[in-house]
Design brief:
The chain has 15 helices and 9 strands. With about 350 residues, it is an alpha/beta fold. A hairpin with a 2-residue loop joins strand 1 and strand 2. The protein is globular, with a radius of gyration of 22 Å. It starts with a helix and ends with a strand.
Length: about 350
C-alpha cells in the first residue's frame, strides 16, 4: 500500500468508526427543531439565536450545528463577524418535521429503535437471533409485537412507513405496467401510503389493505379517509386467516422479515387466493448475485439480523421463493432505491 493509499484508508477508517453518530446527529437536530426553525426564519441564524429559540445550551447547540455543517445538512456563512447557519436543500426537503417530504419518523426509527438494538450486534451474530428481548422495555423476540405493543409505538411505525412509501412508492409501482391488475391487495399495507400511490397511478383500481386488527384500526383513524372508497381495510393475519381475493398481491418489505420457510408459506397462500392471470409484486432491496452490494442491502441485512428472523436476498433467492410457491414468469426491475419483482400465476 502506497503512502497516499494508506492516508485514504486511514481517513475511511476514521469516518467509519464514527459513522454510528451520523443518524443520532441528524435525528437530534430534527427532533430539537433546528431544521424547522431555519426553514421558518427565512434567513440564516447564529448558534446563540438558535439555542435561545429552542431552549438549549449555546455551547451544545454550536457543536451540533457544526457537525451538521460537516455532514452537509447545514450551510454556514460569515457576516459582520458572526457565523450564521442555514439549511441545505436536503434539510429543507427531508429533515424538518414540517419538510414537504419529511423523513422525521424514519430518522426516529433508526436513531432510537435500531440504534438501541445495535448495541447487541455481537450477541445477534453469536446467536443468529433478534435482540429485541434483551431490552428492558420488551420481552418479545417478535419485531411486530415489539413495535405494536403501545399505541404510540404503532403510530410512529406507521408514520415511518407512510414517509417511506410517500417518497418511494410511485417509483417502485412504475417499474411495471400494472394497469391490468384493477383489484389489488396490499398485504401488510400498514398506513396505506402505497395504496394511495397505486390508485393515483391507476384511478380505476381498488386496493384492500390486509393487516393486523390494531394496524387496521389505526389506519382508518389516522391515515386513510373514509371518503376514499377505492381503499378498504381487511383485518387478519396473512399466515393464518383467509386471504382476500385479488388480481395482484403486493408485498412491500415483508419477505425480508421472515425465514425462507415462512416466505414460501405466505407466498403459497397468496398464489392459492390469486385470480388466474394475476400475480404478486414483491418490493425489496435486492443483493447483487455475488453479494458484494449494494451498500443499502448490506445495512438492511444487519438491521434484519438485529430485529427479525429474516434477511436480504439475491435475485436467484427471490426467484426460488416465488417458484416454490407456484409463481412463474418472474421479472425483476431496479428502481431508485428498491427493486420490484413481479411473478405471475
Amino acid at each position: 500500500m502506497s503512502a497516499t493509499e494508506e492516508a485514504e484508508a486511514l481517513k475511511l477508517l476514521f469516518r467509519n468508526q464514527y459513522s454510528f453518530l451520523i443518524s443520532k446527529i441528524m435525528f437530534t437536530a430534527s427532533d430539537l427543531g433546528v431544521f424547522d426553525l431555519l426553514m421558518e426564519s427565512k434567513e440564516p441564524l447564529t448558534s446563540v439565536s438558535i439555542a435561545e429559540r429552542l431552549g438549549t445550551s449555546p455551547f451544545g447547540m454550536e457543536r451540533l450545528l457544526d457537525a451538521c455543517v460537516g455532514l452537509k445538512f447545514l450551510q454556514v456563512e460569515r457576516k459582520d463577524n458572526q457565523t450564521l447557519y442555514g439549511n441545505t436543500e436536503l434539510a429543507n426537503l427531508y429533515l424538518g418535521k414540517r419538510s414537504p417530504k419529511t423523513q422525521y419518523y424514519s430518522l426516529k426509527f433508526n436513531a432510537e429503535f435500531v440504534y438501541t438494538r445495535a448495541q447487541h450486534l455481537a450477541d445477534s451474530v453469536r446467536e443468529g437471533e433478534a435482540q429485541t428481548y434483551r431490552l428492558s422495555d420488551s420481552s418479545t423476540k417478535n419485531f411486530y409485537e415489539a413495535m405494536y405493543r403501545t399505541e404510540s409505538g404503532l403510530r410512529e411505525f406507521m408514520e415511518f412507513m407512510r414517509e417511506m412509501w410517500s417518497l418511494c412508492g410511485r417509483d417502485v409501482l412504475n417499474a411495471f405496467d400494472l394497469s391490468h391488475f384493477p383489484l389489488v391487495c396490499d398485504v401488510g399495507g400498514c398506513s396505506g401510503a402505497l395504496a394511495k400511490e397505486y390508485i393515483s397511478l391507476y384511478p380505476n383500481s381498488t386496493v384492500t389493505i390486509f393487516d393486523l386488527p390494531e394496524v387496521v384500526e389505526t389506519g382508518k383513524k389516522h391515515f386513510v379517509s373514509s371518503e376514499e372508497h377505492r381503499i378498504t381495510f381487511h383485518e387478519g393475519d396473512a399466515f393464518k386467516d383467509p386471504i382476500p381475493e385479488a388480481d395482484l398481491y403486493i408485498l412491500v418489505r415483508i419477505l425480508h422479515c421472515f425465514s425462507e420457510e415462512k416466505c414460501v408459506q405466505l407466498l403459497t397462500r397468496l398464489h392459492k387466493a390469486c385470480k388466474p392471470g394475476g400475480g404478486v409484486l414483491v418490493v425489496e432491496i435486492v443483493l447483487n448475485e455475488d453479494r458484494t452490494g449494494p451498500f443499502e442491502a448490506h445495512m438492511y441485512a444487519v438491521v434484519m439480523l438485529l430485529v427479525t428472523q429474516g434477511k436480504e436476498r439475491t435475485p436467484s433467492e427471490y426467484n426460488a421463493l416465488l417458484s416454490a410457491a407456484g409463481f412463474k414468469d418472474i421479472q425483476q426491475k431496479k428502481a431508485i432505491l428498491f427493486d420490484a419483482i413481479l411473478g405471475r400465476k
